[in-house]
């Protein structure tokens, strides 16, 4: 059995679909299952059992002998949430408890960290574990992920195989339920479909032209391909960046969405809200040398390829 937490969410559901495609069908799906909209993400997938996240630790204590691998993708991911207690409980402590169980029961463990741990990028975007304790996230969500990464690295005892994945700006199928936390691709598609135009944030940094703010956008199918590869690799434990390795502008992304929709470009700019302006990131780019260095060689989708597939095969259907 393979455990996937956050099973009905964006990345979790895509990971289960990937596992099914590779004929792994004894999936233990862990989540709350209280959102009918999100539940649709897994309704056509092969799943052995659904387990509520609140009782999963007890379930694992009983069924650990049957569990081959744990993917801990579930988390509270709202970067605008300021309930530090809730984030600490669901993101940090929950992961600590699961980590300790994977040590006890000798289960390999891959968990979702986040590029939000990098803050404004004062130390770059290099997944050198010697730098991780210095990072300064910009919000409580990023801090909850940072707290676990630092704790994990400080532990004398670790699962026999483990990996933490710092997801960058992931986009793709099954993110529709995330609302304002969904990717810019999703928002651009909906805004262009409804209004024929796309509004981007104006640059308030003289080093960047309007629309030339840059992010590392990665297609969700590349993310789950890496997860699947790690399930078989099972060596070189540690914390890894997971982005495309290539920063692209919001203008590039928006143009790609217009092209995929076969619509004429109509792009305008609005001021970045003042309450986020001083914490706005103008550049993120994952250094992917570490993952490549342990043998992951599959090519990632470039932005235009990923956007075209997402729009034409999922959003336009």
TrEMBL record:
Cofactor(s) demanded: NADP(+)
Origin superkingdom: Bacteria
A Pfam match: Epimerase
Pathway listed: Nucleotide-sugar biosynthesis; ADP-L-glycero-beta-D-manno-heptose biosynthesis; ADP-L-glycero-beta-D-manno-heptose from D-glycero-beta-D-manno-heptose 7-phosphate: step 4/4
GO molecular function: ADP-glyceromanno-heptose 6-epimerase activity; NADP binding
Enzyme class: isomerase
Any Gene Ontology biological process: carbohydrate metabolic process
Family: Belongs to the NAD(P)-dependent epimerase/dehydratase family. HldD subfamily.
Protein name: ADP-L-glycero-D-manno-heptose-6-epimerase
Organism: Fulvivirga marina
Lineage summary: Bacteria, Pseudomonadati, Bacteroidota, Cytophagia, Cytophagales
């Amino acid at each position: 059995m393979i455990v996937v937490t956050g099973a009905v969410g964006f990345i979790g559901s895509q990971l289960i679909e990937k596992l099914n495609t590779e004929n792994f069908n004894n999936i233990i799906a862990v989540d709350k299952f209280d959102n009918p909209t999100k539940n649709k993400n897994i309704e056509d997938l092969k799943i052995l059992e659904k387990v509520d996240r609140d009782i999963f630790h007890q379930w694992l204590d009983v069924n650990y002998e049957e569990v081959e691998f744990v993917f801990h993708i579930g988390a509270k991911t709202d970067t605008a949430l300021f309930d530090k207690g809730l984030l600490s409980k669901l993101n940090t402590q929950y992961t600590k408890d699961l980590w300790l169980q994977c040590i006890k029961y000798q289960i390999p463990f891959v968990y979702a960290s986040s590029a939000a741990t990098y803050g404004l990028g004062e130390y770059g975007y290099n997944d050198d574990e010697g730098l991780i304790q210095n990072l300064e996230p910009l919000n409580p969500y990023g801090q909850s992920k940072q707290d676990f990464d630092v704790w994990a690295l400080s532990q004398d005892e670790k699962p026999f195989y483990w990996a933490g994945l710092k997801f960058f700006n992931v986009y793709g199928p099954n993110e529709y339920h995330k609302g304002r936390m969904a990717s810019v691709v999703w928002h651009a598609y909906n805004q262009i479909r409804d209004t024929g135009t796309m509004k981007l944030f104006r640059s308030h940094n003289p080093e960047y032209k309007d629309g030339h703010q840059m992010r590392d956008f990665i297609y969700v199918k590349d993310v789950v391909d890496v997860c699947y590869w790690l399930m078989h690799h099972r060596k070189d434990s540690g914390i890894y960046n997971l982005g495309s390795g290539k920063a692209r502008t919001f203008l590039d992304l928006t143009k790609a969405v217009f092209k995929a929709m076969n619509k004429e470009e109509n792009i305008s700019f609005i001021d970045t809200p003042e309450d986020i302006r001083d914490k706005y990131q103008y550049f993120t780019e994952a250094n992917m040398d570490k993952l490549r260095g342990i043998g992951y060689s599959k090519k990632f989708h470039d932005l235009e390829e990923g956007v075209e597939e997402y729009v034409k095969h999922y959003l336009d259907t």
